[in-house]
């Protein structure tokens, strides 16, 4: 049995500078194109909920978010930051940018904490490897661009586990209880953050210097602390029980009842989310490292961290790729742990490290390059503004793929079927905007009956994101985000295929 509590490999020269360079790369990959699509109203699902509710609270002064699909902590933080930024913002300031920058800070912070944790658990070299793996991890880079709950929650979970690790190492109550506080904050950012209590419980159970009665008492204190923090930072879950129950019923109906977003595949988090989000080499290194943690008391916390979040992602019938995001930091740490166990040096170590890092760096750069290009919806908006007379009545097929038009164009939202389009035509809306996407048909499509009608219409302009003759790539099918999750060579820019039609009578 390997006891990795013993001798560690020496720290590389210039460790501090290397760590700073890794954080610089992490920040660059996450800041690149962070202003993507700000002229599009619904360019990234859930941003409108998080930032929109924060803006509503700021404007009304009502601390009740009246929205409980997510806990309230991130809404409060966004509202506070928006209040500060608005004092200095110029005209045209988009509040989503504040939420996105917060995600960037949390993303880079997660890289830093993972690096420190790897150093404390294993060695400075392992800490650098873990930080580097996470800095370029494509799935983490991707989600760090947007004002949603996932990256802040993962940051707080990582902080909680890091505090727990330090508590076990130093044998001090303070760190253990700070881990409980952080777990409460994670749960108050996104409900699944409560699973951070499980690796904390595992750490408490392995405190050999304490009796089982003392360990049980410590666990009770930690659960109480986490709940108190959760309740105090999301108070209206308990003060507005009617609204909270209504949200729970709505979520249950969408997920388990109507299953409007269901693509139930319990292996989806591994075979899709992590396979394409981390690449097979890094995922393989991480899985082998996680398997080896069972033989190391110090590293066992990584298994206790990843398994609950993986089980939660596998159990839900709503298969979003981002649900596997909490597993990315422990996989990065486990991959570094495995490299440490090999005791390999020189070219062998570097070859294994690069096999995990390079595919992720390539995917992250490819994603950022595409994200920095103008979306087809933005191009359509500009074309309409430049080529159509203000006051032209425009009907737009509803959906996430629809462009946002300037205010001097009267808009009627219609579905993707012929009946609604005919009714708008009779009222003088003789310009129609359609949007289609072969991989996201639930959000962007044209009904067959409407397609026949368009055969008699005049195509004024079309904005096509796809590279001619290539596959459009692999998409997260239930996520209305118009960039592939993998296979970037098939697209030239974000967005659906947007067409502008003149409807002849």
Task: Name the features.
single chain, 505 residues, mainly alpha, five-stranded mixed β-sheet, 5 strands
Separation, N- and C-terminal Cα atoms? 81 Å
Largest pleated sheet: 5 strands, mixed
**What would you call the shape?**
globular
Residue fraction in strands: 5-15%
Helices and strands, in order, run as HHHHHHHHHHHHHHHHHHEEHEHEE
Strand arrangement within the widest β-sheet reads: 2-1-3-5-4
Regions with little confidence, pLDDT below 50 for 5+ residues:
1-7
Number of helices: 20
Count of β-strands: 5
What is the alpha-carbon Rg in Å?
A: 25 Å
Which structural class should the secondary elements be placed in?
mainly alpha
How much helicity do the residues have? Answer: 55-70%
Mean pLDDT: 91
Q: How does this structure look, described?
A:
- With 505 residues, the chain is mainly alpha-helical.
- The protein is 58% helix and 5% strand.
- The protein contains 20 helices and five strands.
- It has a five-stranded mixed beta sheet with strand order 2-1-3-5-4, sandwiched between helices.
- The protein is globular.
Task: Give the structure's gist in a few sentences.
The chain is mainly α. The protein contains 20 helices and five strands. It starts with 14 loop residues before the first helix and ends with a strand.
Write the layout of secondary structure elements.
Layout: H1 15-31, H2 47-60, H3 73-88, H4 95-121, H5 124-136, H6 138-143, H7 150-170, H8 173-187, H9 197-205, H10 212-233, H11 236-239, H12 241-257, H13 268-278, H14 280-293, H15 300-315, H16 328-342, H17 346-371, H18 376-387, E1 394-397, E2 411-414, H19 418-426, E3 431-436, H20 448-454, E4 458-463, E5 497-502
Parallel strand pairs: 1-2, 1-3
Antiparallel strand pairs: 3-5, 4-5
